[in-house]
Amino acid sequence: MGQVQHRRQAGPGPVARCRRRPRRRLAGPLLRPADGGDLMSVRRHTTARLATALTATVLSSALGVAAAPPAAAANPTPTSWEAKALGLASAQSTAQGEGVKVAVLDSGVMTNHVALNGKVTTGPDFLKDGLQPGDPRWGEHGTAMASDVLKVAPKASILSVRVIDDKEDHGPGDFKGGASPTSQGIDYAVDHGADVISMSLGGEMFGDSVDEDEVDALARAAQKGIPVIASAGNEGDMFNDASYPAGYPGVIAVAATQQNGSRAEFSTVRTYNSVAAPGVAIMSAKNTGGYAPVNGTSPAAALTSGVVALMLSHNDKLTPAQVRALLTKTANHPAEGRNALVGYGQIDAAAAVRASAKPPADGTRPVKYSGKEHLATPDGTPKTQHPPLETELGDDSASARRASGCSWSSARC
């Protein structure tokens, strides 16, 4: 069975350019020290990809902006640039996420942060690596993403499901051939009342395959009428590899924009991009208290999940297809209407919430995932969920590799 290595996608600082692209090697972040010294690796993996939450010190060094002072403990929503860009004041005058549960599949959420108190239910830890709250590798990224969801939908609730590690990326070999934590997390969210599933994480395919457990779990989410949002990836200024789950059918993939509304330079450029949202210097909760600015498609996806929560709060009958249609129709479209940089453009929360009162008809019908043909081109796919336009799976499917005896570590893969 194909599996995808997932990690957080909070965004890059300055990165090293590798002379040669490693084959099937996975993310390990490189951060520039605040004193402007040499690039350093902060994980055991030596890789050419980047996806990590940045601390205020590191990010301010990378962006040339001042870090937020520790005393800035109030929710930064009223003055944040992303709130203005999304039209949150108008959107929140109509709905604030009442009655909507957002499942945040991430590295865990610290429930005692002032921005999260009383709003988080902690689900299982599917990573099962023995880490507990308080460990440096627990809850840094997830806490930030949960706060970004609630920044947009302050009256929504969060279901935290731990599926990634803050500091170390995990590959298929870590799961002893069982279902990935991400697929288990999706199923748990579906079975425990989630109205929205938010995944600010991603990874490339092993051998251009798919993780059938994950796609099957996403199909079950579609059957239950649950919209799924994922970060598009932070590869735009490097190798621009596709990222999954963003590239899976049915997922609303979110690119990142900067303050002038254009694509953030790190945001992955792929035709699976559905929409975009602010993803630069997003003030987010720290698992140690206070706030810090974060870059990446991670906060872009979390903010979009919050907007979807507002939409469902205003109209709880919306289907995933209607949510997608409303987000794309009301977004600030690029000149050509849609492109691989930002999809249909930066979302407009106020317009999306208003339009959710009278959504377009939903002509889709959920169908069970039936193998790689489910990921064919749009013309050959049952009209159920939006398929990734670039997915072309030939004989290099998971089943073909199993039949040939090919392993993930084999040079033949």
From TrEMBL:
Region: Disordered; residue ranges are 1-38, 355-413
Asked whether the keyword Hydrolase is assigned, the reply is yes
Active site located where? D106 (charge relay system), H141 (charge relay system), S298 (charge relay system)
GO MF terms listed in the record are: serine-type endopeptidase activity
- Alphabetical keyword list: Hydrolase, Protease, Serine protease
Q: Name one GO biological process term.
A: proteolysis
User: Which Pfam families does the entry mention?
Assistant: Peptidase_S8
Q: Where is the composition biased (Basic residues)?
A: 17-26
Start and end of every Peptidase S8/S53 domain? 97-345
* Keyword Protease on entry: yes
Supply the InterPro entries for this chain.
Peptidase_S8/S53_dom, Peptidase_S8/S53_dom_sf, Peptidase_S8_Asp-AS, Peptidase_S8_subtilisin-like, Peptidase_S8_subtilisin-rel
**Can you tell me which family this protein belongs to?**
Belongs to the peptidase S8 family.
Q: What PANTHER family does the database record attribute to this sequence?
A: CEREVISIN-RELATED, PEPTIDASE S8
Q: What is this protein called?
A: Thermitase
Q: Which organism is it from?
A: Streptomyces himastatinicus ATCC 53653
